[in-house]
Structure formats: C-alpha cells, structure tokens
Amino acid sequence: MQVKFTKMQGAGNDFVVLDATRTPLQLTREQLRHLGDRRFGVGADQILVVEPARSADADFGYRIFNNTGDEVEHCGNGARCFVRFVHDQGLTTKPTVTVDTVNNRLQLHLQPDGRVTVDMNKPVFDLARVPFDATGLQPRPQGGFELWPLELAEGRQVQVAVLSMGNPHAVQRVADVGETPVAELGPLVEQHARFPRKVNAGFLQVLDRGQVALRVYERDAGETLACGTGACAAVVAGIRLGWLDRKVDVQARGGLLTIEWAGDDAHVLMTGPAETVYQGEIEL
Fold this sequence. Notes:
Blueprint: E1 2-10, E2 13-19, H1 29-36, E3 46-52, E4 60-66, E5 71-72, H2 76-88, E6 96-100, E7 105-110, E8 116-119, E9 140-142, E10 145-151, E11 157-164, E12 168-173, H3 182-190, E13 200-208, E14 211-218, E15 222-224, H4 228-240, E16 247-252, E17 255-260, E18 269-272, E19 275-283
C-alpha cells in the first residue's frame, strides 16, 4: 500500500501529515507505528490525519496519533501544521478554518506572516475531567490555584499544577530547565498512578512575568522539542498561580511560542510557526 505524506514541523515538534479528504485511510496501529518510526519509517512525534468535516459548520476533521499508534485528543503544534497543510495543498483558501478533533473543536487562523494562531479553547480545571485522582491528597494553595504533591520513587516528591487543555497536563516549576533531569523525572510523572490516562509532564522555568522556558515529557512520545498544549497549560497554570502576565513568550527547545489567556472562561490563544519539511511516498 503506497501512502503519500507530508513531513512538517512546528517549533521542532515534527509530524507526518496524511490527506484523507478524498480517499479514506484505514491504517492499522502497526502501520501508524511504522510511519512514526525514525529508523524504519518516516519518523515523527505524531501523525496527523486530515479528514472531511463531520458536521456542516466545520471545515475539516482532524485526528492525531502518537508514534506508538495510539490516538490522542489534542496537539497544538500539530494544529498549526494542519492549517498550513490544508492551505498549501489547495484544500481551502479561508484564512480561518474550523476543525473537529476527537473531543474538541478548534479555530485555526493563518496569519499574513505565515505564523498560525490556534484557538485552543478553554482550559479545564475539573480534576475528574483531567482526569486526576486526588483522593487523600492535600493541595498547597498558591495565588488563585493550587499545587498538588506527587510522591515519586525513592521518597522524592514534586509539586504540580494539574489541568487539561483537551489532554492532561501536570506542570511543575523548576529553577533551570537545562539542568532538570527531564529524562528521569518525566516518565515518573507521566505514568503516575494518580493519572489514569497518563499525563504530559511540564517543567517550567519562569524567566520574568512575560517569558518562560519550558520542556515537556509527552505521553507515549517522550520529550519533544516543543509541545503546544504543554505551553498553553504551563502559561495558564503560571497565570493562575500568580507568576505570569496574560501574554507570555514560551521558549521551547525547538522554537518560540506565544500564549495569551485573559483568565476565567476565556479561550487560550497560541501563536507560532508551522513549516513543511518535505513530501514523499512510503510503502506500508
């Protein structure tokens, strides 16, 4: 089976993008894993599938798969690549497109300078919806939010802010992201029993009220060069905890993202780059 693909990246978070708007794609988990494999396939953090709209008031459907073949709910950097892809492929001429994911609806805006702004919807703070099991835990109030203690191996404990951006996030503040053992701590948080669907583990360094540095250990993908939903979660948490202003530049290892949140019931806006790397075909 020959499959055409486009390799894209947004702030170093890389994707294989597949067009299923004309011909449906029914790929198995093994085929998706092969696509995402950096040695035997194309290689990517996630595989994005562009599908026909599922409702009359949407422009496209949008499915996201980790390179393990598992479907996930959301990917902000992928959403930016999505809108660049549908424009570059001539699938739409609209500067703003509406897409339906497995559990959400997104507004994607292509800016004149080529960057993309994504309406990431409202953050979710209801612990049951994250989901996060807080049974028996006592949070530490901070600003207008709280930090939850997580017991890790060997008696270690970290304090995390818990929320969802359509997918679960646990954000902890660190003194220096460059010196933080993300490869060691990331899996311990990601697979913690308090998170029944696992969690994206964010490591946030506050540089000043409008600038942060961030590393994210993503569910089932490991550390990536950037994580759009992770950037949104980190900034929202930082705002509620009293550390940050309403507009923040997030320096990920792969590039710069700008996150804006007015608070309360406002939607989170993320702006950043999206670029095509190359196109090709692969036998699956």
